Amino acid sequence: MKPARILAIESSCDETAAAVIENGSLLLANTVATQIELHKKFGGVFPEVASRQHTLSIYPVIEETLQNAHLCWDDIDAIAVTRGPGLAGSLVVGFNAAKGIALARNLPFIGVNHLEGHIYSSWVRPANVDRFTPPEFPVMALLVSGGHTELNLMEDHLKYHRLGATLDDAAGEAFDKVARLLNLAYPGGPSIQKAAEAGNSSAFNFPRAKMDGGYDFSFSGLKTAVLRTIKQLESEEKDIPTADMAASFQAAVVDVLLAKTLAAARQYQVKSIVVAGGVSANKALRTAFTGQGEYPVHIPPLFLCTDNAAMIAAAGYFRFINGHIDPLDIDVLPNWPLSRNQ
Length: 342
Ligand code: KG4
Ligand code: ZN
Hints:
Layout (H helix, E strand, L loop, with lengths): L4 E6 L4 E8 L3 E9 L1 H5 L6 H22 L9 E7 L3 H18 L3 E5 H7 L18 E6 L4 E8 L2 E7 L5 H11 L6 H9 L23 H16 L6 H26 L4 E5 L6 H8 L6 E2 L3 H4 L4 H12 L21
Parallel strand pairs: 1-4, 4-5, 6-9, 9-10
Antiparallel strand pairs: 1-2, 2-3, 6-7, 7-8
Helix pairs in contact: 2-3, 4-11, 5-6, 5-7, 5-8, 6-8, 8-9
Bound molecules: 5'-O-[(R)-(carboxyoxy)(hydroxy)phosphoryl]adenosine and zinc ion.
The site of zinc ion has 6 residues, from helix 4.
């Protein structure tokens, strides 16, 4: 049978990305043009700057991806693109590029939820990986990105049941905000991880919130606890032990994420755990999940943890083979919740 090849585009935040995936798994090409350096001076993503940079990068990124895959447009069977959630001005750049290609090439057009995409990064098989096992259903999926923290029971492809989500800050957002409090560079996650390497994770006993048996999360109290500690130390004219604070904060986040995921995995008797989203790049989180020994755990390689189009292509493939093709007159959905079946 002829392989199905999906070309996907992702431009929901500050990365302009394209990728081609064959049969929902094998990664033929993956291009990410990051804007991190552009936004660093603002201490976070500046939406207008982001969308204009996407406009500049989108065409070369798509061209480079096709070239690296050694393919031409005739080899592509469908176009997938991030529909949301994300920054509206950033989303429309990739979204309209994908619509234009679908129209010009008469290809099926598939809008993909960005969060669904993150989960599907565990179905992506990089070309240099020989032995690859996709997650076995039912899956407990922990999604930890800059904007979302969710636990989803995934019974089968495209079938999600959201068990809980953050009531305030997302895990990545907490990393970014605490990094700012500690005067560490944007993006905060990698900076905290780096600072934490030299720190003692039990130096401060920061709160582990919402350990009430439910599956919702809350990280704003933890952020406030860090702020309060800094203010206290400052009022005593003491130095801020950045490394110890970073390590203790990171440990508190990891503890909560692991405990809730394991509890949910046990309750719903899943066969595997998937950890996805930018925060899944965190070394301490990866070590904690891979070390638990109770469930097979799938965490994507680092280059697939943060935003990329390979994950959108993988999710797009399963939408494609299940007949979820979208018309060309649909809008982006900046606040599309994962649990809504659209
Ligand atoms: O998934 P992602 O690239 O974008 C969104 O969809 O939001 O996630 C970005 C988030 C940021 O908050 C960033 O600080 C966090 O992922 N992040 C990390 C690490 N790398 C990225 N957090 C903790 N440790 C890391 N190594
Ligand atoms: Zn993301």
